[in-house]
Amino acid sequence: MFTTFKFGITDCWNGFGGTTVGARPCDNTEGTTTNSLGQLTYSPAPSASLDDVLDELGLLLTSSRLTSVARTLIRSAVEPEFLTGDTAKAVRIAQQLIASSPEFHSSNLPRLSGAGPRQLSGYSLSPAHDYRAVVFLMLVGGADSFNLLVPKSGCMDGRDVFAEYTNARGAVAMGAAGLLDIDATGSGQVCGTFGVHGNLPVLKQLYDEGMATFFANTGVLTQPLTKHDDYFSLTKVQLGAHNHMQRETYEVDTRGIMHGSGVGGRILDVLNRHGHQTSANAVEGRDTLVKGSPNDNNPVWTVSERSPGIIDQISSLPDGAMLDLVKQLNGEGEPENSLYGETWSAKLSQSLFQYEESHRMQTELEGLNFTLTSFPESPEGTLDQRFKSLAEYMSTRHLRKVDREVFVLSHEGYDMHRENTLGKKFSELNASLQQFIEELKAMGIWEGTALVMGSDFGRSVTANSNGGTDHAWGGNYFLLGGSVDGGKILGTYPEFLDERSDYWTGRGRMIPTTPWESVWNGIGQWMGVRGDNDLGWVLPNRNNFDKCALFSDQDLFLNGEIPQTACLINDGDGDGVADEVDQCPNSQYWTGLASDASGCQPPTAGPTTSPTLVPQPTIAPSSAPSVPPTPAPTVFGVLEVTPKASVITPDSAIVRVGGSNNHAVGRAIDGTTDKYEVHMSDAAKTGAGFEVTPFWPHSIVQGIRVYTASDGKSRDPTQFVVEGRNREGEAWTLIAGGDLNLSVERNPQGVPIDSSPSAPDLAKAHQEVTFQNTAAYSHYRVTFPETRSTSSTIVQFGEV
Hints:
Strands 1, 5, 6, 7, 8, 9, 10, 11 and 12 form a nine-stranded mixed sheet that branches. A five-stranded antiparallel sheet has the order 15-17-22-19-20, with no helix packed on it. Helices cover about 25% and strands about 15% of the residues. It is of the alpha/beta class.
């Protein structure tokens, strides 16, 4: 759009013109349209004032929906040129700014707060964890993976399964000489020796070295099935369709519970909530696998095969002023902001942030004089270039300060209906994998990287009449990595490749026996996800399968930490203690603290001697009532206390109460002014806030401090309620409640709060309310029933 306003219709400067006509050079002077295919012709009346021009452009481009905030910003940029008499340039500047505004891109009325650009930033501190990355490689089109992994010899009951394979596959069968033997005797498969496609020697080498694992007959499933079930109606996907099956492979959510997010993105969401510094990355193509929940709103970064380009080349304003104004025009919105306008502004602001970060990374790398050692300077194939770009990006992990990453990239060309060119594609794949693995080893992150291959679906075991194969279902895939516990085939390779199999549905199609949930369960655990609650959020369909049939990280990795026996208990919080005996059901597994037999953890800091707790008996009723009394809450007397600025730390277990939100609930207690908001329904407006379990086994709360957010004064809470209890399932006991009158002064976004037991952070806008309380509790609920504006449906604050 900017190019069109400045230079007309042209293919120069990333313009809309798809081609040049004749030998038309690019114009290098802003506002010159001599060599364009066409140009915009708007011109104001000679007598028009600046306000007349803005009124007319606002009418033409936004139907007069340009807000006063936007108009003021645009006027400040246009006026200097207008006063010099260069009306044409003033018009071009106004057109560019209006065309970048939410008013231009949505049909309802945006409402900006006027507080400036959205506050976006990367990580400022070095990560506290080791580096781990998952790379998902999608072979697009449906790879013929029954020629990737082939049964050969040493088969059960003395059968010649290779001959059966050859008979079943017909014209597309691999000859024995084209296969590389691997030992599968310890894998419990139909044969003791399998063959890997001869054009993938890197897989055989890694398998023999114990760094590659195969997943047999794996695919998209809603629940375990055989051909004797009504598998079409029981499988909630459109089987055989490329777009649907690719999406299901990326999402691993066949029932659409977390629709639009991918399994890799949800893993990163959980890890980010628990203190990891994460990055979701798509190498060029489709990014579904790494998209997280919209509530977490974690960005997806594009890893490009090309160097970052330049936005707004030959700008109409000097020194980056144009993009600075664009960011202000798309700044923070008010609570009543248009949904469509908010979406445009958020996406545009994120894109500009990523653009600036990409250039910063490029500058940093050039300053380090960093070069890859295994890839040629100019790779020949597309896959080589993508893996090279991926390796270069991974080399910047220290600059980006991340410790957990998921990448997705693709290799096209596997939909082979008419001819079998699998050997050629596998040769390309083999060369790229070899170079990528050598680069990871050179960077010292081979042990911290896991590469998993998948595809839309497997192809038919039987050949079609055109010498190719057709869309099927189950397929065979692999996992590679320096920490992979490899040298084995997991899952179950079909015992028969014909109608004798319980999984043969006809025409060479096999129902998968291993769901993608099984693979990602183990990978998620290796990345750091624990417990049935978090794993169930990552894998919404997980409970449809036998937990003990899902792979654990110890099944997949040498450094896996979750024992296979963990599947035998229900363990919501991941502390290794069964839910039915867990007395602290919100233990924070991500802190690395071990829980005792009761499921409780020691505090992370505090007095050298633990507080002495004296259980007080509940008072029995004076006479037997006709109905059982409500159990009295468990009460503890405390003999020793240590003052704390807050009983809550950023690592405290916390869940949202009431309504919904787009912010991670941890923002409410993260020790900074990073704003947290809850979108309240009418039903939830009586109690929106959070429940929190501090590290301290028991604590006495005698006050509350609430810090304001960076905007949205109308959303400030005006009432608070603090409740406590000591056991899950007990009724909440009121500790204190009352009015709040927060300052209209706003705090800067995301600034650390420096407080003590005796004093709040006086440099930050806040309100402190103290109250009398001598009772100790281990769980707290904090809610805010009312807000400053009675019409507001959002309660918001910076910190509690």
